[in-house]
Amino acid sequence: MEYEVDSELGYENESARESGMADIIINDEHPMYNEIEHLDMRNDDITPQDNQDDSEWEDEYDDLFSEEDGYSFMDYYYDDAPNYGMHSLEQKTQLIQLRRHLDRLDAKALDKEHDVFRIKEKVDACRTKMKALEFELASIREESVSMKESGNIAAHDRLASQIKKLELEIQNEHEVESLIKAELQIAEMGLSEVALEQRHYLNLSEKVQEQEEKVREEKKLMAELRLRKENQAAAKKERQLRKAELYFMKKMEEEENAYKARLEDALVNNMKAKQFLQISMQKVRDNWNREEEKNTTLAKRRMKSVIDLKKSISSTQENLQALQARDAARMKKQDAAEKKERQQILQDGGNPDQVLLQRKNRKNIEKQKKVFVKKQEENRRKIAEKIFYEEQRFGKRQQQLPQLWANRKSEREKELGPLKKRPVMKSIRMDEEGEPHFIERKFSTSADFNLDQAHREGKLEPSESDEIQTTTKSDVVSSSISIEGRLEALMKKGASKHNREDLAQPEFDGLWTKKHKDYKVPKDEQVLPKPVGGSDMERAILKRTLERHRAGITVKQVAAGREFTGQPFYSKPDVIHFKDFDVGKTYKKKIVITNVSYTMNFCRFIEISEHLKDFIFVDFKPPGQMSAGMSCDMFVTFSPKINTDLVGDVKFQAQTGPFSIPLKCSTKKCDLKVDVNFIDFGSQVVGETICRSVQLVNNGALGTRFEFFKVPDKPATTYTTETSLGRLTTAETVAMTPVDESDILKTATTVPQQQSTKQNRRHTMKEGMSTAAVTSIRPLDSPGLPVTEDQDRMVSINFVDVVEESSPERARSDGDEIKFESTVTDYSMLPEEIKVGQTMSGEIAPFSTVRLDVIFAPTIPGNIKANFRIAFSDKDSEPLTVKTSAKAIDVPVWIENPTIDLGICMYDRLYQDQLIVKNRATTALRLNFEVPKELKNHIEVLPRTGYIQAQSTFTAQLKFLPRKNLAEEGAGLFDPDSGVLEAPMAIQVADQTRPVPFTVMGVVTCSDMEFDQDEIDFGKCGIYESVAHTVKLTNYSILPQKFGFVDVPDYAEVQPNDGFGTILPLETIELDVIVNADKAKNYNFKLVCKSIIGRQFPIRCRAVGVHPPMELTKQVINFAATALGDTSHAHFHVVNSHTSANEFTHPVPRIGKGEIVPVGPTSFEFRIPEGAPISVAPCVGTVQPGEKCLVNVYFNPALGDTTVREEALRVLKTQKDDNERREADRQAREQALAASKTDEDKNGKGKKSKTPARTKTTDSQPPKSSGTTGSDRKSGTDEAPSPTLEDVEKDSDAFKAALASLTRSFSGSFDSYKIPCFVASGACDDITNSPSQSFNPANILYVDVHCPTVKPPVVVISNQGQNCTDFGQVSIGQNTIRPISIQNISDQPVDLTLSSLDTNGPFQVLNALRTLTPDETHTLLVSFTPNAGKLFYEVLKMVSPLATLSIPLTGKGVSPVIDISVDDGVLDMGDVLEGESNSATFTISNSSSLKVDYSIRLDSNSLLKHSLSQQIPSRSSDTEKEHSRSQMLAGPQNYDGSAVFDCVPCEGTIATEETHEITVTFSPDHSSRHYSDGARIVLFNLEQAHAVKLQGRAHKHMMYLDGYDMPRLAFESLSTEEKPADLESDLAEPTRDILLTFRSKISEGCFQAASRELSVGCIRTNAFVSKKSGDWIVENMQHAQSLGFSVEFPKGSVDVGSAKPIEIVWTPPEGQNPNVTVESSLSLTLKADVALTYNVLLRALLVLH
User: Fold this and answer.
1) In 10 A of CB 1060, how many CB atoms?
2) φ/ψ of residue 1014, rounded to 5
3) CB 979 within 8 A of CB 907
4) Distances from the Cα of 542 to the Cαs of 535, 545, 605, in angstroms?
């Protein structure tokens, strides 16, 4: 049995074995094993407290044996520390176990001692308590005895119960004491056991302490060692700190200097800015001046336009005059034709006037019909368009402001329109002042009366014009569908009645119907007759005479000294009044005249008033002298002939003077009045109705028609179609305005609905007229005019404004009558409180009374006043006014808020409100709340029944919980389409007939929100990028709802606003759900969108996390603003961090929980989007595990070819149009010139003038032909097809011009590109296809590149705007200069600097740059001097603060091309004997068109030979070729100083297509295998065309051996060479050792044979001519053959000048150990001139990999 030390000690068996340490094993025979096992078996007795102590002790020992600062204690112990007795690790383990056990025993002993002490304390406490109880018991017993003796039984019994209780407690304490003692015995026994065990391990504890002391000493040594290291580290840190301080001070100084420099630059820039500001201000002033000039130019242009307009007006007048003259001529022709036609008709016996008039009337009718139909259709179309437009506006406004629209019922209650009135036909007459007076309507026949009555009662069929009337309020509030349907019906009906004959009878005849006589001028003989009664002068003379005569007749009457004054006679009646007379009848009255003077008097009738003499006859016989008080009779007879009021006097002459009796004749009149002018209804409760009457009394003999109506306080309000359907327009009722029927006839037409509405105007009404009057006028038949179908149709004009818009100069005569249609207001349709009763109009007979009722039905409490008016058809009767006053008192119980608006509510949500009921009565009342049965399940009022106290308030709770079945149960009260709930409810009050109504209103909506998809599949999501998915969230509620996504995982997010926000009613918003996968696993989670009311709307999401095998250090690249033609650079790394497939130590690349990507090289490929100005280098590559690859991204903005081509096409088209226009102008000028020349030829006179004309004509023939050719060319051009985009080449001038134009007008752009990076496992060479074809889509990485592009500040204007400057082909050594012109196209000055060119290159800038102001140009001179025959390319960069202008410079140095016949540039001279020579040749040919001067230069003759030969020689043959081209090729040289290699000829000239042969001689003077030299062919002493390496080998003897392993340098060693031996010496050559290495590789489960070849050669020499061949032999092969070696040709011969191979094969024997190298040797002897012996060392290996 073995116990291996576990990993807690720091070592494992395998790791210890690998590190060279022996396994530490404790055998069961070890003397300490039993003791340790014994200790382990007793661990069961250890308490948890012991385990805790053990852990603390182990921590201490771990600290003792810990490894700090990378230095192991065991390493120190075994290597450097002195030996203190701890020779093995098992002793350390034993020490740990012993210390652990001893500490456990100590801790256990302490615990046992503590338990014993604690139990003893319990025993002492128990005994103390028992003593106290016994003492208390004794005292209570004594007290009990004393109480018993004293006879206190109650105290004795109480103390007895206490004694029993104490005795019971003492007994319990004795039991507890016994238990504690037993526990104490157990604890003391345990303590004894622990003490015995400690004594058993007493000796062992001392040994442990000694060992621990040794460990502490070792720890102390380790601490000292660490202290030294820490001191060294501290000193190092201190030095670094000092260096950092010095560096910081230096940086501070640099920053201070830089600040000073920046300050100076700022001052300089400030000065420059001032200059620029002055320039800018000058520009501003220049702009202002230009604006002034522009305004001046504009003013001049306007003046010119006015002048042109005047000219145009004058020319137009001339044209009008010409047109009038033409019309006059045409009229003359027509008159002539008409006259001719009249003659023809007369000849035929017809009436020409009748025929022509009928024809004219027919034409007029047809013309009017067409105009009418056209106008009617146009009006209908306008009406339809207006209705459609208003419907659209109405719908839009209803969507924008839904709160302005209530339901139809409430809106209808708010509307107030023109009141309906009963039609009453009346007639009025205008007086001199223009005021209308009612007159009695008279009907000629009963048919006329019936017709008028039918009109008034509305029984006649309405005419077509009646159908198109002003839209009333009810029409407006109707739906748009009804409007369209009604309009369509009207149009159809109008079309159907278009041809119907409808003759309307006029209401009265016009003046034009009456015949009149022509006015005749009176003749001179006709003299007016003398007026009756004489002239005015005669009447005046007569009047004066009568007055004088009467003055002489009168006598003063004096009686009793008193003079009589006054009227002497008194008549009875006082006034002679003939009342209510009828024309044609005779009336006679008796008048009694009484003398009322003092004495006798007489009277005599003189006369009556002049205007009464024709109607009044007075029969009076003078009675003579009459005493005072006496009477006489007089009879007055009245014969009325006219129905007119007459007023006059009957004049008498008495003795005392004249007197008169008034006489009055009055027609029948209306005497109207009311019994009361003011009605006071008093106080009335709301809801009750009271009626009061007014007596209308007619005391006159004439009856009349009356109207009883209420006078509105404000003008009536109506809807019209002129305004939007949602707005109200206020229009006063139209007054009655007299209309001239002749004007109406002239304008007789059908007024469309909209036009009639537009013609509505306000008119003031005279008191006594109707409040709403609509004039209905019909055209009258005129016998003098032709009757047309349009005139036959009745035309209705709804407003009198049409008449008013006629000529204002037309005056109204006094006798004009106006027929009007008055409507009586029906106030019963309006919710008025004081209104007219049933009798609103009627007839009042003479001397009769009519009762008029006024009803008061209050609905709203408060004081109410109203005025009523009684209007009469009699013009002489003034309207009567009746004023009313009332006070409405509310019901005792009323609700504070009769309309409870719950607002917008949601289903299944509880809404509450208070019903506040108030009682103004002085008694308590019982209330009962009634809820409609349809809403029992949705609305509840608590309490349902209650009592409200007197003059107090009662509050009830209204609960509204709308459920989903509200639409089904609340039918009629709830509109499911709009969601509007209007529930009428009532409060039944005891002893009150009228309930208290109130209405519960609200809009019920749902709280649903919905996603457009239930599940989101994000697919594969990389851990280095975010994947977003857009979802739509729709709110089906009409309330805005707040929402938020809760419990969102850490790897997911919702944007915007982190998934929180407010969604408006019926709105759909887009939300982006973003997943940021952090691990490669499957993600299944649920996003919960929670509304503010707690509803949850989940959406399931799933994704697969992908850990790509590669990662990018940057995934977003933001380029700086880059100008066109400039280049911006950025870089990032592609990292392959996948180095281990252990998924338990770190995340591994995989897709979800799929297979792990194998560790190995990974390839990537960037795929640039098509057309993107971006390049990536490298775009394809392979990254090894743990490595990274740098990727550069270049942004080269440029204008697109398509855009440039389109601009080029536009330029070409513009040029083509300009050319065509110029060609047309040229041809026009040529034609004008030819015409002018022709006119000169015609107008020329004389013989001399004709001859030049012919000469000119002859000269002008070629231009004509050229013009014809030009036209032909133009026609050919027109026929040629227009160029397309493909026809525009990049090298064309149009393309270049378009590119320059677009560059100058470029305004900037911002583009973003997403570059995919395809990733595939394996190297690019191992992958069959490219990474973009063998990739996994889940592993694609993306790079977002943001590319802002701006306009370049500087452009090249030379070379047609091309940046590239090509110098072309230039001979070597020649100099060419090209100018490069640049221009500043920005609006700011630009400071330019040049980049440095290659100082040894052919390009050179000859002048310097300077600061370019806006639009300034500068020319840069660049020279090109090629020094070699090759293509040169450099980039000249002009750097500005904002961009860099790159100008590529290209040029080709023309040099001749020569070819050599040496392959691979190496000429091998072969093997020769030392002291002899060998020759070889190669050719040089010239394939160019020029002759070539060449020279061959050997490296051994170069002056730089010694400096270049100091370089380290190459040790590998792979780099030997490169080494030969870049370094010195000269090898060992001859000892005698002669050249080893020689070329003949060494220089020359080769003509075109000529070839020269070069002979190379190899002459070594000692043996060496490293002879070499470089032959460099230089053309024109400037350029090296070719470099040929010359190499050869020299040997001492004829036979040589090659093909063995020999670590050799490519050059001879610098050590001393062996001295050359004498060829004739007989001393034997020493044996040489050579090495052959064999490597056998495994194939198909077994090791294959390995072979090597040795080449044996024989040199041809003149020294041994007799020797024709050499021999070789292989010996001592037994040992080698036993190891598997075999020689194919162990013996043979080789001819001189040739070589043969010796093949040696090694076949590994079976059971060969791969770790053992097989070694053996052979002996090889070469015999020719001398015998050469080689000891061939054979070494074989088995290669597993």
Assistant:
1) 12
2) -85, -20
3) no
4) 11, 5, 18
